[in-house]
Amino acid sequence: MSKKTKKLSCTDCGLINCYRQEKSFPQFCLTTNTDNEMIEEVNELYRNDEFVSKLSKVAAEIEGTYYGKITRVEEIILFAKKIGAEKIGIATCVGLMSEAKTFAKILNVKGLESYCVICKVGSTDKTEVGVDEELKIKKGCHESLCNPVMQAKLLNEEKTDLNVIVGLCVGHDSLFIKYSEAPVTTLITKDRVLAHNPAAALYTSNFYYKRLLEENDIE
Fold first, then answer.
1. Distance (Å, rounded) from C-alpha 206 to C-alpha 162?
2. How many degrees, rounded to 5, is the angle at CA 123 between CA 118 and CA 126?
3. Distance CA 177, CA 187 (A)
4. Contacts of 104 (CB under 8 A, 6+ apart)
5. Count of alpha carbons within 13 Å of 110, Cβ hemisphere only?
6. Where do the domains of the chain lie?
7. Largest Cα–Cα distance of the chain, in whole Å?
């Protein structure tokens, strides 16, 4: 898409006036160019939809009270308690079982029940669902596929009140969120190269990770 025909969006804005309204809105601003009917429709959800209202108010309360003061682990615990969640589901990557166990221990100490399902649950070989043998990490042996759909379904059976992602792969997390009946939040976002700190690639895109700004595609 050429720059001339590109539809401008929030990444093209240098004002961010929508936050505190201390400046002015750019001509292409999504706030001023969105139909008032849609804005009111969304606001009605925040006001009158029980689920949306509860979660949004609790999230805002935690943000306003503890901004920059507590860790994400603590935020999740607070969020769970304030929305009345008692049973916390953990959808973990096999490579982060140690972290999942520590998180489960912390939840239990804080008076919350936890139930964890690992990504390799079902132990189905990748080739059984059409993945080529050559695309396995270790070829010529059983290698179970990541199974976020089963993770979600098993946690649904356990009737968890809130599910927490611990390092699911890109795409697998999308499937888990789609099939989870309980609301989902993320504790750890997987990045094997950057010690699960994917934002580091953005912070270093003008230095170590200059290739991210090059036009050639990753193959």
1. 38
2. 110
3. 14
4. 90, 114, 116
5. 21
6. 27-69
7. 62
Which residue is it, tokens 């804080």? 110
pTM of the predicted protein model? 0.92
Question: CB within 8 A of 201, min separation 6: which ones?
Answer: 191, 194, 209, 212
Phi, psi (deg, nearest 5) at residue 83:
-95, 0
Contacts of 33 (CB under 8 A, 6+ apart): none
Query: In terms of Cα–Cα distance, which of 121, 111, 116 is closest to 187?
Result: 116
Number of helices and strands (H, E) in the chain? Answer: 9, 4
The C-alpha atoms of residue 184 and residue 80 are separated, in whole angstroms, by 11
> Which of 122, 121, 117 has the alpha carbon at shortest distance from 164?
117
At 185, phi and psi to the nearest 5? -130, 170
Would you say the C-alpha torsion 79, 118, 178, 156 has a positive or negative sign? Answer: negative
pLDDT per residue rounded down to tens, the chain (219 residues): 445 568 999 999 999 999 999 999 999 999 999 999 999 999 999 999 999 999 999 999 999 999 999 999 999 999 999 999 999 999 999 999 999 999 999 999 999 999 999 999 999 999 999 999 999 999 999 999 999 999 999 999 999 999 999 999 999 999 999 999 999 999 999 999 999 999 999 999 887 778 787 877 666
